Amino acid sequence: MSLVKRNNLIFPSLMNDIFNPDWFGGIENMNHNIPAVNIKENDSDFVIELSVPGFQKDDFNIELDNDVLTISSDLKKVNENKDGKFTRKEFSHTSFKRAFTLPKTVDGGKINAQYESGILKLLVPKKEEALPKPKRLIEIR
């Protein structure tokens, strides 16, 4: 079994760089980063890891709807220099959304998530009937 990712990315990064240049040498006001994901299948579960440094655990929204696991965040930051006269303020709006279609062998009611050191880790257990069965010796009569 494998997890299938679904993203709604229409233009690749190169196209965004061409049509949304930052002419003033700073950061772009809208930043749509899609975090890198590692997915590992074990005998008893799947492990999904997203690289999302700079977030807090309350910044994430994780939903399961009709076997589609969606992980998203909408983080707004305001960096303001209040010392004296300034010529620039930087606002940052980082959002992402990743969706994975889960196989029917997954037990959606037992999914666990934790966030530590910039990594969001989800443990997606398999149903009991999907676990590998031990070898069985069949007796000949």
TrEMBL record:
Domain SHSP: from-to ranges: 28-141
Taxonomic superkingdom: Bacteria
One Pfam family hit: HSP20
InterPro entries, alphabetized: A-crystallin/Hsp20_dom (IPR002068), HSP20-like_chaperone (IPR008978), Small_HSP (IPR031107)
Coiled-coil segments: none
Family: Belongs to the small heat shock protein (HSP20) family.
Stated name of the protein: Hsp20/alpha crystallin family protein
Species whose genome carries this gene: Croceitalea vernalis
